[in-house]
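Chapter summary example: a protein plus pyridoxal-5'-phosphate.
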Amino acid sequence: MTATISVAGPKIRTKLPGPNAQRVLENDARIISPSYTRSYPLVAKRGRGVVIEDVDGNEFLDFSSGIAVTSTGHCHPEVVAAIQKQAAELIHMSGTDFYYESMITLGDRLSKIAPMAGPHRVYYGNSGAEAIECALKLARYHTKRQHIIAFYGAFHGRTMGALSLTASKPQQHRRFSPLMPGVTHIPYPNVYRRPEGTDADEYAVSVARFLEEKVFATDIAPEEVAAIFVEAIQGEGGYLPAPASFMREIRRICDKHGILMVCDEVQSGCGRTGKWWAVQHTGVEPDMITIAKGIASGMPLSVCLTKAEIMDWVPGSHASTYGGNPVAIAAALATLDVLEREGMKNAEAMGKHILKRISKWPETMPLVGDVRGHGLMLGVEFVSDKAKKTPAGELRDKVVEYAFEKGILYLGAGPNTLRIAPPLIVSAEQCDIALDILEEAIRAVAALHEKGAKVGQPSGA
Ligand SMILES: Cc1ncc(COP(=O)(O)O)c(C=O)c1O
């Protein structure tokens, strides 16, 4: 059975936000934490496949997948059926204190598709940050080393440990210090912004070598480093893929110094890039991966998957009451069925379909400096001056807002990139509709910007 829904396109019936949405926004402003970042006032009511209906009956195409979560689309019938069946049988029995078989079934299933040779072990949590906390604690426990290396631009979550690895936006750290000690951030390669005239691979390797040539040479003894946490495609950093040469060099450094290589696949994993894991595009085998978001189509579940010999901690070292909840695991097993059967292949095909159309945009479209990514994890970087590559975050935001008003849900990523990340069951027809509107949005924002720039020019200039 395929979940792909053919639609004529978004249906916007009211001014946005509509009257019901307006009421929700007012109440939200009264009671909900103001720390959340909302790009535009979408008030969701129902979802089916790629379509989200809001509280005023407007229908949108979701090209953000609830931040790369609804991998099988909204409310995929097989996932819904699995959740309903499990909820009627057993909702909770804390797998950290008792046993239930589906924890093993999912573990074995993930072991079969892991990006490194087995045997493996799994730890279950509820969120991406919890999978990172597990990897962080386990890396220290197993290696008996303290230091952790992470990258500028990385986003690994917001709990104190995960936040210490995150270096994405200053607001995420502001007034929360001191964070966890022992974390050192180093540069992540950005091929689009590499020094003029340099070879992409040589540049990427030189970025990785900073670790040995500077950090290990002047600051930290490598034998005290437990792990390097890396995203094979930086997600919140701007949908930035790391070249394979960079990942190979990180692997070499890890092997040389007995450091664990942890790939954070929270956003890039579960078939989104056309392979199960983004790191598989680089040919590198990590020691551990962290999984969340797309694994259970929206049910809270995360996994830290490691080579078995690394998970050598003893009872009492780490656990979580809800981690690996039976309902979330049932959703994950159904999700993997859908992804294995059609979603991952479709992500690859639709990624190619979209790239065919947008890869020339840096030459043909205003404001677009770079287009990159794999499968359905694609980024469009906005610049106000293509020669100088001047980041244009505000213009990106305007494009995102324009598209929302026309019925397509996009989200930004990083300072000035727009992410294209629809559910993996999206159809070519839906991609074409979403790209038509994106093109329209970019041209409209560029025209306004151009006009504004002219108005702003000093007379006689
Ligand atoms: C790569 C990566 N790691 C970790 C996280 C944190 O996940 P969560 O928000 O579920 O804690 C995110 C969330 O965006 C992420 O993109």
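Key point: The pocket of pyridoxal-5'-phosphate is lined by residues 67, 127-129, 132, 155-157, 231, 235-236, 264, 266-267, 292 (CB under 6 Å).
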